[in-house]
Design goal:
Strand content: 25-35%
Oligomer: single chain
CATH topology of the largest domain: Beta-galactosidase, Chain A, domain 5
Distance between the termini: 38 Å
Radius of gyration: 26 Å
Bound molecules: (2R,3S,4R,5S)-2-(hydroxymethyl)piperidine-3,4,5-triol
Number of helices: 12
Length: 698
C-alpha cells in the first residue's frame, strides 16, 4: 500500500522514498519526514508536540506546516494569503477529512477549511511510485456568498530534514546564455527565484535541487531533494531557512502583482509541483525527471524525433517558395526528415517591423499559398513544419489596425515595444478565438506536421481594460489562455508535433511540455557554449526534448564533426545555409545524420549520464544508455586546455557490472564493472570530439 493512514497522519511511499505528514495536537497539519523509504509505516516520525519558544516565536512559527497560511504568529514564508470581503486578511486552517484512492497513481486528498469563514482548501498528493516522485497541488474553493481575494496561492511547500545546512542548486541565465547551474549554501533568510515576465523566462527556471552542505551529492551518489513547478507563467520559488534550523522550499505562481478574485462557488486550482528524493546523486535526480517527462508529460513521449532542418539562420526573413525548395532539396539529400520554414512567410513580414498577427501566407512571397512548398517537401520524403509567434502583434499589422485594444497595455501609457512588437492579451477569449481560427485554418489547409511556437519578448504594462475580474488576474489568465489556444489546436490536430521556443530557452517547463514535445534551447548555437547550455538543460529535461541544430556558428575553429557531435546529444537538427556548405560538407553531415539515426533511440529514450561537466571542465563527456543496458553512446569533447593537459579517465555509468561490453576504438571486451571503475582515457586534441558506441557482447 503506497498510502498508509496512521493514527496521527499519513505516510506516502514510492519505490524507494517515504514522505510523512500528520496533525499535531494543536491541530496543525505538519510535515514529519521526506527521505528513504522505511521498513514499516510505524517507523516514520509522528508530529512533534507543538511548542513555542518565547513570546516572539509561537507555535505556528516553529511548526513545519505542510501548507501554511498567513495567520497568527506565522512569520515564515506562507503558501497562502487571502483577504475576505470584510477585510480579514488571514486564514486559519482546520482539518476536515482525508480521502485516498488506489490504482496506477494513488492519490491522497486532505480537506481543510477556515475556522470561521467560508473557505475550503484541498491538498492533493499523487504518487508516481516507479519514478519515486510525488506530485502536489492545491485547490481553493469559496463556498460563501461574498468574494474572496487571493493574494498568494503556492502549489507546495517542500520541507527537508531539520538541523542541517543545505546547498541549493538552480538554473540561471539570460537570452543567448541560458541554463548555468549555480550552487549556493542557504543561510537563514529567504532566497527568492522568480519570473515576473508572464512566462517561465531565460533567467531562472522553476527547478531546485537541495543537497546537504556537509555532504554534497555527486553525479553518482549522495542525497538530493529536488522539485519543479509545471507552470509557464510568472512563478516564484522561496527557499527559506528559518531561525530554528528548518529549511523549506515554497513554489508556485508568483504573488508579485498577483490577485485573484474568487467569487462565490468558484474554485482556484494551482499548477502542480513535482518533488523527489534520491540517494544516488544529481544524475539520478535528473533521470527521474527525464522519465517522468517522457512517460507522463509529453504528448508524443515515446516517439522518436525526426532530424529537422530549420531555415532561420540560412534565410532569416527572406523566404519564398523557390529558395525554400532549394534548401529542402539539399536537406533531403542529407537525410533530413522534417523541413521547417521559420519566420518571414506571412503577410507583410519582410523584417521584424511588421506582420505579426496576420497569420496567412504573404501574397508576394507565396502567391499560391504554402501548399506548393509543403507538397514539394513531402515529395522529397520529408514532413513540412512552420514557425509562428501567435501571442504577438506588430503595430504595423492588419490585426493591430483592427484591434489595437487587443494588445496588453496600460491606458494612457505608451506601450513599450520590444523587437517592434506588443503582446496580445491572451487572457481575452476573443483574442484566443481569433488565433485558434487563424492557426486552425493553416493546419487544415496545408499538410503541416510540425509547428514551432515562438515568443520573442516578455510582458510590460500588464493592464487589462474591461477585465471581468481583477485586472491583475492577467498573470494567470494569460497563461491559461495560451494553454487553451494551444490545447485546442492540439486536440484538433493531434498528430502535429509542437516545439516551444521563446527566443531560445525562455519557455521550458513542465507546463508547456504537456503541449510541446520539443524545446528550442537557446538562440546561441556556438557549439562550445551549447555544450554548457545543454548540460544545464539536462538537469531537468531529457535529450529528446532538447532540440539542437548545427548552424553556421563556429566553423572558423570547429570541425563540422565537432559541431554535429554537440547537436547529436539531443534531438538533432540542421540550421546552416546548405548552399554554402558545398557537397563535401553536406556529404559529411549526411554520414553523421545516418549515424544519428542508428543511435537516436538510445539518446532520445535511454538514460543520460553526465560523466564530466562542460560547465566545469574543458574536457567533458556525456553517455547515453538504452534502458536494457545493451547499447550505449559516449560523446567526449575537448575545447581549449592549456598544455600539459592530462587526459581524464572517463568512468562509464549504468552498465550491467557482470556483463561484457565493447567500446568502439578499444580492442576486446571488458566487464561493465571494469568500464565503470577503471574507466577509459580517450586522447583528444583541442577542439576535437569523439562519438564511441558501447555494445554489450555477453
Ligand atoms: C527566435 C528564435 O529563437 C529563432 O530560432 C527564430 O525562430 C527567430 N525567433 C525568428 O524570428
Amino acid at each position: 500500500m503506497p498510502i498508509h493512514t496512521t493514527p496521527t497522519g499519513w505516510v506516502l511511499e514510492t519505490g524507494s522514498t517515504g514522505y510523512a505528514l500528520g496533525l499535531n495536537s494543536a491541530g496543525l497539519l505538519v510535515h514529519t519526514y521526506w527521505g528513504a523509504r522505511l521498513p514499516r509505516p510505524e517507523d516514520y516520525p509522528t508530529p512533534p508536540v507543538p511548542r513555542e519558544w518565547a513570546s516572539f516565536n509561537g507555535i505556528a512559527h516553529l511548526a513545519r506546516e505542510e501548507y501554511p497560511a498567513y495567520a497568527g504568529t506565522q512569520y515564515n514564508e506562507p503558501c497562502f494569503k487571502a483577504t475576505f470581503a470584510n477585510g480579514v486578511r488571514d486564514a486559519v486552517w482546520v482539518f476536515e477529512g482525508a480521502e485516498t484512492t488506489t490504482g496506477a497513481q494513488p492519490q491522497l486528498t486532505l480537506r481543510l477549511r477556515d475556522a470561521a469563514y467560508p473557505l475550503r482548501l484541498a491538498l492533493h498528493y499523487r504518487l508516481h511510485e516507479a519514478l519515486d516522485l510525488i506530485e502536489r497541488w492545491a485547490e481553493i474553493h469559496n463556498p460563501g456568498s461574498e468574494e474572496l481575494t487571493l493574494e498568494r496561492v503556492f502549489s507546495a511547500l517542500w520541507h527537508v530534514p531539520t538541523g542541517e545546512s543545505y546547498t541549493l542548486a538552480h538554473l540561471n541565465g539570460k537570452w543567448l546564455d541560458e541554463f548555468h547551474i549555480l550552487r549556493e549554501e542557504l543561510l537563514p533568510g529567504v532566497k527568492a527565484l522568480e519570473s515576473r515576465r508572464i512566462t517561465t523566462s531565460h533567467h531562472h527556471n522553476p527547478w531546485f535541487l537541495l543537497e546537504r552542505a556537509a555532504a554534497p551529492a555527486s553525479e553518482t551518489a549522495g542525497e538530493a531533494w529536488f522539485g519543479v513547478l509545471a507552470w509557464s507563467g510568472s512563478w516564484k520559488l522561496a527557499a527559506e531557512v528559518n531561525d530554528f534550523g528548518s529549511t523549506r522550499v515554497g513554489i508556485g505562481i508568483n504573488d508579485w502583482d498577483f490577485v485573484w478574485r474568487l467569487n462565490p462557488g468558484e474554485t482556484f486550482t494551482t499548477p502542480a509541483s513535482l518533488g523527489g528524493y534520491t540517494q544516488h546523486g544529481r544524475g539520478a535526480a535528473s533521470r527521474r525527471l527525464h522519465d517522468y517527462i517522457r512517460r507522463q508529460v509529453l504528448p508524443h513521449g515515446a516517439e522518436l524525433h525526426k532530424v529537422l532542418y530549420n531555415s532561420w539562420e540560412a534565410t532569416t526573413f527572406n523566404v519564398d517558395e523557390e529558395s525554400q525548395i532549394e534548401l529542402a532539396e539539399l536537406a533531403a539529400e542529407m537525410g533530413v526528415e522534417l523541413f521547417v520554414m521559420d519566420d518571414g512567410w506571412f503577410h507583410g513580414r519582410d523584417d521584424d517591423h511588421a506582420g505579426l498577427g496576420d497569420w496567412w501566407p504573404d501574397e508576394g512571397k507565396f502567391p499560391h499559398g504554402l501548399g506548393g512548398l509543403a507538397r514539394r517537401v513531402n515529395q522529397l520524403g520529408m514532413d513540412f513544419g512552420l514557425w509562428v509567434e501567435p501571442e504577438m502583434v506588430n503595430p504595423n499589422s492588419e490585426l493591430y489596425r483592427a484591434h489595437p485594444d487587443w494588445a496588453i497595455h496600460f491606458p494612457g501609457r505608451v506601450p513599450t515595444q520590444a523587437r517592434n512588437q506588443l503582446i496580445l492579451n491572451f487572457a481575452r477569449s476573443d483574442v484566443q478565438d481569433y488565433i485558434i481560427e487563424k492557426l486552425d485554418r493553416l493546419l487544415t489547409e496545408t499538410n503541416i506536421a510540425f509547428i514551432k511556437w515562438d515568443m520573442n519578448r516578455n510582458v510590460s504594462e500588464p493592464g487589462w481594460e474591461g477585465a471581468p475580474g481583477d485586472p491583475r488576474e492577467i498573470w494567470v489568465r494569460y497563461v491559461q489562455g495560451v494553454y487553451r489556444v494551444w490545447g485546442t489546436l492540439r486536440e484538433r490536430h493531434p498528430r502535429v508535433i509542437w516545439q516551444s521556443c521563446s527566443g531560445g530557452g525562455g519557455r521550458a517547463d513542465l507546463g508547456i511540455l504537456r503541449l510541446a514535445d520539443q524545446v528550442w534551447v537557446s538562440d546561441n548555437t556556438e557549439p562550445c557554449a551549447r555544450l554548457s547550455i545543454q548540460e544545464g538543460f539536462s538537469q531537468v529535461f531529457p535529450a529528446n526534448v532538447m532540440e539542437a541544430w548545427v548552424t553556421d556558428s563556429g566553423p572558423e575553429y570547429l570541425s563540422l564533426e565537432f559541431r554535429l557531435h554537440v547537436s547529436m546529444c539531443g534531438s538533432l537538427g540542421i540550421g546552416g545555409h546548405l548552399k554554402h556548405w558545398g557537397p563535401t560538407l553536406r556529404a559529411e553531415a549526411a554520414h553523421w545524420i545516418a549515424v544519428y539515426k542508428e543511435v537516436r533511440a538510445i539518446i532520445q529514450q535511454g538514460d543520460q549520464f553526465r560523466l564530466r561537466s562542460p560547465q566545469a571542465y574543458a574536457y567533458s563527456a556525456v553517455q547515453y544508455l538504452a534502458k536494457d543496458q545493451g547499447e550505449g553512446v559516449l560523446f567526449a569533447f575537448r575545447t581549449h586546455l592549456a598544455p600539459p593537459a592530462p587526459t581524464p579517465a572517463l568512468r562509464l555509468q549504468g552498465l550491467a557490472p557482470e556483463a561484457l561490453y565493447t567500446l568502439e576504438g578499444f580492442p576486446g571486451a571488458r566487464s561493465g564493472r571494469s568500464w565503470m571503475e577503471a574507466g577509459v582515457q580517450i586522447e583528444l586534441q583541442d577542439f576535437h570530439s569523439t562519438l564511441r558506441r558501447i555494445q554489450r557482447v555477453a
